[in-house]
Write a structure and sequence with these properties.
Structural class: alpha+beta
Number of domains: 1
CATH topology: Immunoglobulin-like
Radius of gyration: 17 Å
CATH class: Mainly Beta
Number of strands: 10
Helix content: 10-25%
Shape: globular
Strand content: 35-45%
CATH architecture: Sandwich
Largest sheet: 6 strands, antiparallel
Distance between the termini: 52 Å
Order of helices and strands: HEEEEEEEEHEEH
Oligomer: single chain
Length: 176
C-alpha cells in the first residue's frame, strides 16, 4: 500500500512539473503611458520522457508592450535555469522549428540578464522580437522544437500541449 501511495505521489509530482499554467502579469507605467502584459511560467518539455533535477529548466513566454493603447510590440522571453551557465549568445540565438520550417530570432543575449537564484542555480534571460503573424503560425502548428544557442552549450526543447494552449490564449487575448 505504501508503494502505491509513493507511486501516486511521484506521478502527481511529475504531472505538476510538466504543467505550465496560463498566468498573465500586468505592469502599468503611468509616466510612460505603457502597459506590459507578460505570460508567466510556460515551461518547455525536455526531450525524453523522464524529468531530472539535473535537466535545465527552460521557459518561453510571450509579452506585449503597449503604449497608450496605440502602439504594440511583442516579445519572446527565454528563461534558462540550471546549475551551469549556457551564456545565451547575442544575435541569432533562438531557433524555432515549426512543423519543419525554421524561424530564427535575433536578440541581445543574456549577458546583462544573468543572476544567481535558488542557492546554487543560475538564471539567464534573453528577449526576442516576434510578430503576431509568427505567434499565429506557432499556435496552428502540430510540432514546435526550440533550439537555444549559447557560447557554453546548446539546449533543445519542444512544445507540449500546454505550451500550445498558453500561446493560443495569449494570442486570442492580446493579438487579435
Amino acid at each position: 500500500m505504501k508503494r502505491i501511495i509513493f507511486i501516486l505521489h511521484f506521478c502527481l509530482f511529475i504531472f505538476i512539473l510538466n504543467c505550465a499554467s496560463y498566468n498573465i502579469e500586468t505592469i502599468r507605467n503611468d509616466s510612460e503611458k505603457s502597459t506590459i502584459y507578460r505570460m508567466k511560467d510556460n515551461h518547455l518539455s525536455p526531450y525524453g520522457s523522464l524529468i531530472s533535477i539535473k535537466v535545465p529548466k527552460v521557459s518561453l513566454i510571450l509579452q506585449k508592450l503597449e503604449y497608450d493603447n496605440l502602439i504594440s510590440f511583442y516579445s519572446l522571453i527565454l528563461t534558462y535555469i540550471s546549475k551551469d551557465w549556457i551564456s545565451i549568445e547575442k544575435g541569432q540565438s533562438l531557433k524555432l522549428i515549426v512543423d519543419g520550417k525554421s524561424f530564427v530570432f535575433t536578440g541581445n543575449g543574456s549577458l546583462n540578464h544573468k543572476t544567481l537564484t535558488f542557492g546554487t542555480d543560475i538564471k539567464e534571460m534573453a528577449w526576442y522580437a516576434i510578430t503576431p503573424e509568427q505567434i499565429k503560425t506557432i499556435i496552428n502548428a502540430g510540432e514546435v522544437e526550440v533550439i537555444i544557442t549559447g557560447s557554453q552549450d546548446d539546449v533543445q526543447r519542444k512544445f507540449n500541449k500546454t505550451n500550445f494552449l498558453n500561446f493560443r490564449k495569449f494570442y486570442n487575448q492580446f493579438c487579435i
